[in-house]
Specification:
Layout lengths: L4 E14 L2 E14 L3 E5 L6 H9 L7 E10 L2 E2 L5 H7 L4 E4 L13 H13 L4 H10 L5 H5 L8 H13 L5 E5 L7 H19 L1 E6 L11 E6 L2 E7 H6 L4 H8 L48 E4 L2 E4 L4
Parallel strand pairs: 3-8, 3-9, 6-7, 7-8
Antiparallel strand pairs: 1-2, 1-4, 4-5, 9-10, 10-12, 11-12
The structure holds iron/sulfur cluster.
Length: 318
């Protein structure tokens, strides 16, 4: 059964303003997220993943960035045409976001309970202490009364991230944007948070945009996968198809460089080179200085999107 898209982004381009320069961060990005599904957005740091999420939330720094082209539709409505007042109303209610660093996302001088109540008042118009405890139980915090009276520094990193997830759930959002939600956590805690997010998504039926630099996290988590490089989506399709048959040389390199749990047969084949500086993106295909399959036209011509075996790929090989 196909679900209607909750998010539909068309040809989105976002720039940061750096002095007199315009620095491209998101370039001509199109993607869809169906209701109840999870889309993973994967790529190295600085490729534009978080900028895309901030554009979707309407949280781009106003004086330092601009959307120069494209449309962002949420349930069929173009968010970019809505006044800030209306977008503020949408944030928290229709969509919510959890951030990478659960410590800096909480106010250190206010108790967890106070901060959770702020979210509840914003969404329900009045305080509701029973709802605070219920939200903490929903994110599997076993002693909500203690956590509610604690300050952020008095709870563990994993509990802080659970609190942030609870705050995001306060407005019953239909879309949850999780921006590297496990990066700042220990590996065992990472696993618990991933299981929690999956459980919440399945039980509540939320859609999720899951942002990560770690390909290993998307298997079993995301229905669809978008691989991002230098501000562009270079490969997009069903997660199982991309993981079993990656088409773009960048996706192939990311998958090859994942550590394997089996006796070592030598060093892990890491991707060579570094992601480009957004102020000096290479001409043609931006991946060409790192590509093992480079063709003569690659340094000259930026490839267009092509559909091949159900995957959308931006590469001259197809
Ligand atoms: Fe490599 Fe060329 Fe494809 Fe870019 S377009 S990924 S350089 S083969």
């Amino acid at each position: 059964m196909t679900h209607p898209d909750i998010v539909d982004i068309h040809n989105l381009t976002v720039e940061y303003i750096h002095g007199r320069e315009a620095v491209p961060a998101v370039r001509d990005v199109s993607l869809e997220l169906a209701a109840g599904e999870t889309l993973a957005l994967v790529g190295e740091s600085g490729c534009g993943k978080s900028t895309l999420a901030l554009a979707l939330m309407g949280l781009l720094p106003r004086d330092e960035s601009r959307v120069t082209a494209g449309e962002i539709h949420l349930q069929g409505e173009n968010l970019l045409q809505k006044p800030e007042e209306e977008r503020r109303h949408i944030r928290g209610r229709k969509m919510a976001m959890i951030f990478q660093d659960p410590f800096s996302a909480l106010n250190p001088v206010l108790t967890v309970g106070y901060q959770l109540q702020e979210c509840i008042i914003l969404n329900e118009g009045k305080p509701n202490s029973e709802r605070s405890a219920q939200l903490l139980r929903q994110v599997q915090i076993k002693d909500p009364e203690r956590i509610l009276t604690s300050y952020p520094h008095q709870v563990s990193g994993g509990q802080r991230q659970r609190v942030l997830i609870a705050m995001a759930l306060a407005g019953h959002p239909e879309l949850l944007i999780a921006d590297e939600p496990t990066t700042a956590l220990d590996v065992t805690v990472q696993d618990e948070i991933m299981k929690l997010l999956k459980g919440l998504r399945d039980n509540i039926g939320m859609s999720m945009l899951f942002i990560t630099h770690n390909m290993a996290l998307v298997k079993g988590m995301a229905h669809r996968l978008a691989v991002m490089y230098a501000g562009q989506i270079v490969e997009y399709g069903a997660t199982t198809d991309i993981l079993t048959n990656p088409k773009h040389p960048y996706t192939q390199g990311l998958l090859r460089s994942l550590p394997k749990i089996k006796p070592s047969t030598g060093p892990i084949p890491a991707l060579s080179g570094q992601p480009p500086d957004p102020m000096a993106i290479p001409s043609g295909c931006p991946f060409h200085p790192r590509c093992e399959k480079i063709l003569p036209q690659c340094p000259r011509d930026d490839p267009a999107d092509r559909m091949t075996e159900g995957q959308r790929v931006r590469c001259h090989l197809y």
